[in-house]
Write a structure and sequence with these properties.
single chain, about 290 residues, alpha/beta, Aminopeptidase, six-stranded mixed beta sheet, 8 helices, Peptidase_C15-like, hydrolase, Pyroglutamyl peptidase type, protease
């Protein structure tokens, strides 16, 4: 009688990218990169790094519309069936409308574009307030100071700023090591996601998990606003290695905690000094054309 092969543990990563929103940028490289990601993380080209289980990459099947209300409705749907909802996720295609999120998400990576600086920026902080620019449909978010006192407000009780529970400094160090042979690419951590739809989707995921008391296992990456085939190919390779780096960072936490359930409870609802600090002139020098 043959032995039954044990099914290996799987680490699941969900990825989103954005649709175009500026006339000067008819193609959004964030979606071009996301849509080309492999279904599973390939083996590393070298032996460095943390040993991982099989890493599955699920890409939300359509570019996210750069619209505040679309994002506000979409994010809870992305986090899965445990979030009771009566409406399907807002989508422009059958693939989006029929999307069924995985039963468990170990990591969610949102990707957006920024310019003109040619760098790849992991965003540290998501901010609740200050969304003053209209979206692609010329609509404002419309949240007001009075909403903060309304228990029915979707972000009621959420701090003005939140950070991911992922150790981004550790992930950045791993990312740079994994991509050292891929050319001279500027990989960095940013303190200001820009108070537009990129910041908004990141904050929406952070706030959703914060309200659940769950580990904020979400990250946001800004990629350069260039969608040439060469830049998309470079971006795809860098994002694959970013996913590897984030997964290694989170897997190390899980191994230390002893189980996935124990790791999921490792969250810090205290607001860090970095998140509490106001955006200053120095912090604003991020090279992003959409910053205030």
């Amino acid at each position: 009688m043959g032995s039954v092969e044990e099914i290996p543990e799987e680490f699941t990563v969900l990825v989103t990218g954005y649709a175009p929103f500026k006339e000067d940028y008819p193609v959004n490289p964030s979606w071009e990169i996301a849509s080309r990601l492999p279904e599973y993380l390939p083996r590393p080209s070298n032996a460095t790094g943390t040993s991982l289980p099989r890493v599955r990459i699920i890409v939300y099947p359509e570019p996210v519309r750069v619209n505040y209300q679309t994002v506000r409705k979409l994010v809870p749907a992305l986090w899965g069936p445990n979030d009771k909802r009566s409406e399907p996720p807002p989508a422009d295609t059958d693939a989006g409308r029929n999307f069924v999120p995985p039963a468990h998400i170990d990591l969610l990576l949102h990707i957006g574009m920024a310019g003109p600086r040619l760098c790849y920026s992991l965003e540290r902080i998501g901010r609740r307030d200050g969304y003053l620019r209209p979206d692609v449909d010329n609509e404002l978010l419309g949240d007001t100071a009075a909403d903060r006192a309304d228990p029915n407000w979707v972000w009621y009780g959420v701090p003005a700023a939140l950070e991911s529970d992922i150790d981004l400094d550790d992930a950045l160090q791993r990312w740079r090591a994994h991509t050292a042979s891929m050319g001279d690419n500027e990989l960095r951590i940013s303190q200001d996601a820009g108070r537009f739809l990129c910041d908004f989707i990141y904050t929406s995921s952070l706030a959703h998990l914060w309200k659940q008391g769950a580990r904020r296992r979400v990250s946001f990456l800004h990629v350069p606003a260039i969608a040439t085939p060469e830049c998309v190919a470079v971006g795809q390779g860098l994002v694959v290695e970013l996913i590897r780096s984030l997964a290694e960072t989170e897997w190390a936490v899980r191994q230390k905690a002893g189980s996935a359930d124990a790791a999921a409870k490792l969250t810090d609802n205290k607001v860090s000094a970095a998140a509490q600090a106001p955006i200053t002139g120095a912090d604003m020098e991020t090279g992003k054309w959409y910053c205030d």
